[in-house]
Amino acid sequence: MSMANDRDHASGNLRSIAFMLVAVGFFALMDAVLKTLSANYPVLQIAALRGMTALPLVLVYIAWRGAWHTVLKVRWPLHLLRGLLGITMLALFTMGVRELPLSAAYTLFFISPLLITALSVPVLKERVPHAHWWAIAIGFIGVLIALRPSGQDLQAGFVTLGGLATLGAALCYAVAAVTGRLASRTDSSESMVLWMMVIMALGAGALALPGWVAIQRTDAPLLLALAITGFCGQLAITEAFRHGQASAVAPFEYSALAWGLGLDWLIWHTLPSSHTWLGAAIIIGSGLYLVRREKRITEAHATAEHP
Asked: What pLDDT digit, counting tens, does each position of 151-184 carry?
């Protein structure tokens, strides 16, 4: 029975890793849209627009799935907490990318997998293999290298408003991810996506209403892109944390750094320093190691069952 459980965990982890990589790609594109919109709109309004633009797609998706009967059978406290954390996280992260390049913001945000792993032990009662701890630690060392943590660079990286906002967003995200994992044990994927968008649209909308800025017609394509990328990313990341161990899935958010580097160059024509490249190589290397290790575990269990 123990071997069967381990095999199921390994198979679920591989599936979740694939969903995480897809989610990271969509969210990176969404973050580029957020950074562009942040020049003209308040951060809470952008969080509200994130929920409002995605909500019609979510409703169509639920109707297509025929899943209306599942969306009310939920644990409301977990959904409310997750929604509030989502609003706070998105507002803080938008504030961060407004001040920092995407690659720099992602580098700071990479503390979240470490926080998720730490929370997964007492909250989710997961057993974290030693190899995962080592890979996450090595990835975190890569983050420190990318930050150039010495003298003026450390001060510039952490003490600015953008840096502090990004670190706060990482904390909110980590707690929201663990909360989502708890909710997914009983609640459907459709309910999790729906109520996140509803709470974000209504909650952030109410908070943003006093300072609401009229939407410019020229920003309509950006709002459409915000809807599509956010919706697809939310579906993918919900599935990622549904099937696999949070401690195994979370490190693959490191792949966002590659997206950040590419988008910074293509859109804003900036390139990071050699320290950031070195940190990125270490971070991505640790993630690739985990992919290979999960594949070996799956293959080993399959061989044991069918020699």
From this structure: 444 444 445 688 788 889 988 998 998 888 888 8
Distance CA 255, CA 290 (A): 13
Cα–Cα dist 291/252, whole Å: 9
* Beta carbons within 10 angstroms of residue 265's beta carbon: 14
Bin 149: left if φ > 0, else alpha if -120 < ψ < 50, else beta.
beta
**Amino acid making up residue 278:** L
Fill in the amino acid letter for 135: A
Can you read off the two tokens belonging to residue 70? 């599942």
Handedness of CA 73, 77, 83, 86 (dihedral sign): negative
Determine contact, residues 282/51, Cβ cutoff 8 Å: no
Provide the token pair at 190: 């459709």
| Whole-structure pTM value | 0.78
Residues 6+ apart with CB under 8 A from 93: 31, 34, 105, 109, 165, 166, 169, 173
Select from 184, 281, 288, 262 the least CA-distant residue to 25.
262
251 DSSP 8-state letter: G
CB neighbour list of residue 259: distance below 8 Å, 6 or more residues apart = 24, 25, 28, 29, 102, 106
Of 80-89, 136-145, 245-254, the one with minimum mean pLDDT is 245-254
Q: Is residue 112 within 8 Å of residue 174, measured between CB atoms?
A: yes
Is-contact 83 199, C-beta < 8 A?
yes
